[in-house]
Design goal:
There is one protein chain. This protein is an alpha/beta fold. It has 15 helices and 19 strands. A hairpin with a 5-residue loop joins β2 and β3.
């Protein structure tokens, strides 16, 4: 019997529609779990841009602000002021005012908080109040994502200590859900607690933070950094129809700390050969005349200067600041991968692997100058037989590659992790989702609740991809 193509198409569409409408019933799946033995408090750590910033005096929200701001503003007001004497950020007019749960009609963290409450049985806790016996609680760690991540680590520790005081339990351990850059905060805290180990090249692991955490879930965390952070420092951060300019981004210490780990092979020639260049040296940035060493960016920095002497002082301050931040970032990325004692916490990893994600930058000669090409279509000196999409992009979530998510120097899972990358992973779960939509993915939410509500680690999930 012949079956027409149109009939088969109808059958196929009906099948796909049925699959698309199938979602796990989280409330039913976890109703019994949520009512069982009380669980440790949960702390949600958002990623970069994940906390709202407002003017301390007026309360006016600067980030993200109105729809109009998101579409048209360049967010110059986000720039941190620099103390030229100490090369540290000055206390500015902006304060953290909450989590970026929703913006311009899009969900970022609202859905995951709703799931914790409706299906997980958690309730939001206000620090300073005694918890109700038998009730499970979650906390939101909103922080200034512009600042040095060690500063955010110390604020996380203060929150955990306040939770312990509220519970009257100095040995209490918490569960962590950390998205994107928030995962780097959790990882540093686990290794070093509140110690700042970035003033030298020795990284003595204390595991002080790990003693305060039970389970750590990392979602879309750039464990070996992200090429996008390098590009953001060089070109600015696109927002709506505008972008946060490079001179503003350069005042954010955190952006430096998310750049690719030196172990990564991410700078290549047009024919695909690896280039050995130290992007954690300010000489590299001066050589390519990018970020605060770009003439156009320098013009923005000095646009309000009233004299040549003031302009020169501003440029000197920005250059010295850059030197300090780039070296501190080098130490930060190494501090997360050096060997440590037997870990008290093994990470549960979630992330995307279906979207092509920036993984390499091409360096080519153009008009007698070495230039950086961030996009496959921008390469001018194209070589026969080279697939530039395959060379420059890898599977990931659009912002973080799968390899970085797993803290691997190579995408191929049969290649052993580099001997200088220590990463105590429990297991990984992959999603077909973009970076900024990961928290709203129902399959992540399902497996997250399973991990949080499981009685012990043997119930959590498969032990896969642990190398």
């Amino acid at each position: 019997m012949k079956v027409s193509r149109s009939f088969m198409a109808i059958i196929l569409l009906s099948f796909l529609a049925g699959c698309a409408g199938t979602r796990p019933d989280l409330a039913r799946l976890y109703a019994g779990h949520a009512e069982a033995t009380p669980r440790p408090p949960v702390i949600l750590i958002p990623g970069a841009l994940g906390s709202r910033l407002a003017e301390a005096e007026t309360g006016r929200e600067i980030w993200p602000g109105s729809v109009r701001r998101l579409l048209l503003a360049d967010y110059s007001a986000l720039a941190l002021d620099i103390d030229p004497a100490t090369l540290e950020p000055l206390t500015g007019p902006l304060v953290v005012s909450g989590i970026t749960d929703r913006a311009i009609g899009r969900d970022f963290y609202a859905a995951i908080l709703e799931v914790l409450e409706s299906a997980g049985g958690y309730r939001r806790h206000v620090p300073g109040q005694a918890p109700v016996p038998g009730q499970n609680y979650y906390h939101v760690f909103a922080y200034d994502w512009r600042q040095d991540l060690v500063q955010s680590v110390r604020q996380l520790d203060a929150l955990i200590e306040s939770i312990r005081a509220d519970y009257g339990d100095p040995e209490l351990r918490v569960d962590i859900i950390a998205h994107s850059m928030g995962g780097l905060i959790a990882r540093y805290y686990g290794r070093y607690g509140t110690d700042d180990v970035l003033d030298g090249n020795e990284f003595p692991v204390s595991n002080r933070g790990a003693e305060r955490m039970r389970r750590v879930v990392l979602l879309g965390t750039p464990n070996l950094g992200a090429v996008g952070a390098f590009q953001t420092l060089a070109e600015g951060y696109p927002i709506g129809l505008s972008k946060i300019p490079p001179d503003v981004v350069a005042t954010f210490p955190s952006t430096f700390q998310v750049m690719p780990h030196p172990i990564n092979t991410w700078l290549v020639t047009p024919d695909g050969h690896e280039l050995d260049r130290d992007h954690f040296s300010s000489f590299f940035w001066r050589r390519f005349q990018i970020s605060v060493f770009d003439a156009k960016v320098q013009a923005r920095i000095t646009r309000h200067a009233t004299s040549e002497a003031e302009a020169a002082m501003l440029l000197e301050t920005y250059a010295a600041w850059f030197d300090k931040r780039i070296e501190r970032a080098r130490r930060f990325v190494w501090s997360l991968t050096v060997p440590e004692p037997e870990p008290k916490v093994r990470f549960i990893i979630f992330g995307g692997n279906c979207h092509l994600t920036p993984a390499r930058v091409v360096v080519e000669e153009f008009r007698g100058e070495s230039v950086l090409r961030f996009r496959p279509g921008s390469v001018r000196d194209r070589r026969s037989g080279v697939d530039y999409e395959a060379l420059m992009l890898e599977p990931g979530d659009g912002a973080v590659t799968k390899a970085s998510l797993l803290a691997r120097q190579a995408l191929d899972p049969t290649v052993a992790r580099h001997r200088y990358i220590y990463f105590p992973m429990d297991y990984a779960f992959f999603l077909c989702e973009r970076h900024d939509r990961l928290t709203g993915n129902v399959h992540f939410q399902d497996n997250l609740l399973h991990a949080l509500l499981a009685q012990d680690s043997s119930e959590i999930g498969p032990r896969i991809l642990t190398r």
